[in-house]
Design goal:
The complex is a heterodimer of chains A (477) and B (104). Helices cover 30% and strands 21% of the residues of chain A. Chain A contains 14 helices and 21 strands. Chain A has helices at residues 25-36, 74-84, 156-166, 182-192, 207-210, 213-217, 220-235, 293-298, 337-352, 358-377, 402-410, 417-424, 437-443, 466-471; strands spanning 16-21, 41-44, 90-93, 96-104, 107-114, 125-134, 138-140, 153-155, 174-179, 200-202, 240-241, 244-251, 255-262, 275-278, 281-286, 288-290, 302-304, 310-312, 325-327, 393-395, 400-401. In chain A, the strands form six sheets. In chain A, strands 1, 2, 3, 4, 5, 6 and 19 form a seven-stranded mixed beta sheet that branches. The two termini of chain A are 14 Å apart. Chain B is mainly beta and 104 residues long. Chain B has one domain (16-95): 2Fe-2S iron-sulphur cluster binding domain, sarcosine oxidase, alpha subunit, N-terminal domain (Ubiquitin-like (UB roll)), CATH 3.10.20. Chain B contains two helices and eight strands. The longest helix of chain B has 7 residues, at 34-40. Chain B is globular, with a radius of gyration of 14 Å. The chains are: A alpha/beta (477), B mainly beta (104). Chains A and B meet through strand 8 and helix 3 of A and helix 1, helix 2, strand 4 and strand 6 of B. The structure holds FE2/S2 (inorganic) cluster (FES). FE2/S2 (inorganic) cluster (FES) binds next to loops of chain B. Chain B: This is (2Fe-2S)-binding protein.
Amino acid sequence: MPTSPSDPGPRGGAPYDLAVIGAGPAGLAAAVTAADLGLRCALVDAGPRAGGQFYRHPAPELGAAHPERLHHGWETFARLAARLDGHPRITHLPDRQVWTAGRRADGWRLHLTGHHQGPDAPPGEVLDAAAVLLATGAYERQLPFPGWTLPGVVTAGGAQAMLKSGLVLPGRRVVVAGSGPLLLAAASSLVTAGAAVPAVVEATDYLGYARGLKTLAANPAKLVEGAQHGAALLRHGVRLRRRSAVVEAHGTDRVTAVTVARLDRDWRPVPGTERRIACDAVAVGHGLVPQIELATELGADTRATPDGTVALAVDAEQRTSLPGLYAAGETCGVGGADLALAEGVLAAHAVAGRPAPAGARRRRDRRRAFAELMAAAHRPGTGWTGWLTPETDVCRCEEVTAARITEAVEELGARDARTVKLLTRAGMGWCQGRMCGPAVACLAGGPHPSHPPRPDSRPLACPVPLARLADLGEAEL
Amino acid sequence: MARTPADLVGAEPAPAHHIEFDGRPVPALPGQTIAAALWAEGITAWRTTRVGGRPRGAFCGIGVCFDCLATVNGRPNQRTCLLPARPGDTVTTQEGHGRADLAV
Ligand code: FES
């Protein structure tokens, strides 16, 4: 039988007033704020240490005297971590994922599982809470290119994550490529940590930002952050190639070089502009995708973001369309740590039934405007499919090539990602389409303004052993 | 400038232990995941795919892509980017679906 990590509280009903899922900037800020306002909180997190991907940091055994050198805004994290540490009203539950959630008369029941399931895994846990805040962040969007499955080609966020937590680099000469502000951040941490970065290859020309001068002016901190990354890159002689893309990675057992080409306005490679750059690693990403499957499975309303992803729709107080379910941070649309912190604070006040602090609300509104501008500037152009060859693997897990997806669309009449998936198995492997989903949706003819992208539907938010499902009677949900 | 990530953050790690990768010893620092220890040795592939038999290693680094699967202490399909390296762990390159022991 599943067990509960806590006994029912003295007030009866759900043992927790608030369960926060995710201990990144949004979840951390929300948990400590709500607890300070008197709520009993559970903070469930997939990582071994609080901080999420943004504040990911080495294990204590690695003895890092200056973890802040790999971070922006480390003081903020240090303050939050100190507030979390030993807080009498917060139960921190690390190394756990919520794999499904269900409504109860008095709130929500969350089902938790550990990462490292096996014969000796602990039994499943359940947790009841009156309100739930989804602060699960985002994962990276990938657009495939020939050779992207070669070892040494890694996600830009993954390169940063492994560097921040394990103090390791994917290679010595790392080309950073794709689109979005994360590229500059990743490139600047890689060079300061000792890697050579022969080029940062960005598909947009940044002109999109020029359309939002007022929004830019209202967000000086974001500009300073960008300038700091830019300065680090200049100092190390890193070249930024705008409106270009890695159109092929070369190598047999691992990457040894990439071909970079100029792109036209629609991201179509311009023939004759190819250049080869030697490298032993590539860090690549095309923006971030909000991780919202728990909420969409429960039926929460979503919205399309300007860069073509799906985010949860929330009101001014961070409420989703489902009573008692709140969201903060990247789940509401990708916008960075400052925005996530502000949204976490706002959500905590809403759950506690307190008026929103004006400062947090102002910061949220400004940063949200900046996030939308940024998303629009980095929205993938439709011409990226021009760098695929028929043999390019689109789905990494099931090794489904571009040719097979084109065949499903053009010859078998598939009109959406779901049909392509059924016909080709793209997206049916281990990662459940998290890596290939956006690309498959594009190849299947979307996203199109008249058909807003459909949120992915996954009945389980993370892999669970069958025994867990067997434990779970209908009544449990 | 031969700076390393450890230099950058002024790391003074606890002494390294060893894990075994395909029969050879690989040093690991306490607190590193198996994937991190392999990267530190310049190893980027520890799995071959089911269909094409192609080499793979860590890709997303955060437990989402499942490209970093390996057989650890005889147990297949372990996400090495999440799994802390423990002294004496044996990691073997995982071939295909990783269930070589299950004759079907
Ligand atoms: S590298 Fe993606 S799951 Fe481990």
